[in-house]
Amino acid sequence: MFFSQSTSGCFAELRPLYAGMWVHDFPPSKKQREETETMTNPIHSDDKVEAASAVIDRRGMLRGAAAIAATALVATDASARDFGRNAEPQRYPDPDIVVIDPKRFKAKVGNTSIKRLYTGCLWAEGPAWNAQGQYLVWSDIPNSRQLRYLDDDGHISEQSHKPSNEGNGNTFDFEGRQITCERTKLVRFEHDGSITTLAERANGKQLNGPNDVVVHPNDKSIWFTDPGYGAISIYEGQKANTSSVQPYQKEAVYRLDASTGQVTKVADEPFKPNGIAFSHDYKKVYVCDSGITHYPNAKNIVWQYDLNGDKLSNPRTLLDMTLDGKSGFPDGIRVDTEGNIWVGAGWVGDGYDGVQIFAPDGQRIGQIRLPETCANLCFGGKKRNRLFMAASQSLYAVYVEAQGAHNC
Predict the structure, then answer these.
(1) Is residue 329's pLDDT more than 50?
(2) CA angle 263, 264, 265 (to 5 degrees)
(3) CA distance 319 to 335
């Protein structure tokens, strides 16, 4: 999230460049202010009870009831809901898991609810699941730290890696090594504790600032986006001395060859390429475009490319983020085994902010409403059926009747 100051007057308004909106358009509610003041440490809820209830089958009865109830329930403001540690349990089915198309969205579990696992970040980003260790890592960019959630007992390490060089997106390769998009480079944490710089330059120039990253299972190639947010904001990094929204070069998507280490540009159509994901069958690549933060002509869309070996082709719009006449920009993205696309989105307000779920053809089929803008997300847990959502100041999670298509 970035802010610029208006030049009119000494008491200038602050404009969130990440949103393209005025801050005072969405002032915090009284409840949000109270939670910000009091909830600055992990929330250890009854995770074992939650996990046990989530896997009860009931032979589909509860899933069917949830879909029916979702069409009848009156929408509630997510910000009015109490996610605090002493909050009353949420009545099932959870009204903030919204079924838009009951025939196509089967992922709502009737007897589970959205949980806030932690709050106290400045800008939470880049969740990634480690299947071997059964833990989640995510970034708090302005605080230059990474946090870790342990699945066995819900413990959260608040400084698992600090300083993190304003690390953003994370993933794990197929050897279990963490890969992180730092402010100026792409790095990998080796098994012996050392850190390898994978990419720092492309096209003979310095990278703008990597943002999100994925690994292909066949050739182990690493694909990442380079919008450069860490070089145009002192809040999330350090400003480049170029006075440009393109700090060092045109924003682009890159592929790093696992054998040679060569970094090759594979796409540059998005104004600011952000989240990136492979389709469930690895035939396509999806890229979120958050260019509206700095380019007035940008649109809130998700791009789709055909994947042919080491090349991308046929760029086109797959998802339009407009909902009920309002449009927030897409940030992070994940895909389930059925090919459905889960997108972290926000900067609109109640009823929109959270996760938008789309069918493979681009039709919106479901929604998870959160009281905060959702930056990024990933599937995890022992069955890869728990959705973790890094949303502004907090980490949320919910069990779904869907499984992540990829390793993290």
Answers:
(1) yes
(2) 130
(3) 13
| Pair of tokens at residue 324 | 């009920």
Across the chain, mean pLDDT equals: 86
Report, as an integer, the average pLDDT of 356-361.
98
Q: Are 211 and 204 in contact (CB under 8 A)?
A: no
Q: Which of 183, 140, 175, 131 is nearest to 160 (CA)?
A: 140
CA–CA distance, 391 with 347 (Å, rounded to integer): 11
DSSP, collapsed to helix, strand or coil, labels residue 6 as: coil
For residue 64, how many other CB atoms are within 10 A of its CB?
A: 14
Comparing CA positions, the residue from 137, 154, 153 lying closest to residue 145 is 137
> For residue range 241-252, what is the model confidence (pLDDT) as tens digits?
998 999 999 999
Domains along the chain with CATH numbers: 3-399 (2.120.10.30)
Instruction: Judge contact between 373 and 125, C-beta under 8 A.
Output: no
CB 329 within 8 Å of CB 320: no
Tokens 């413990």 sit at which residue? 155
Which tens digits make up the pLDDT trace of 56-93?
344 343 444 444 344 333 345 676 799 998 899 999 99
Cα separation, 286 vs 232, in Å, equals: 25
271 or 6, which is more confident: 271
Query: CA quadruple 63, 404, 307, 283: dihedral positive or negative?
Result: negative
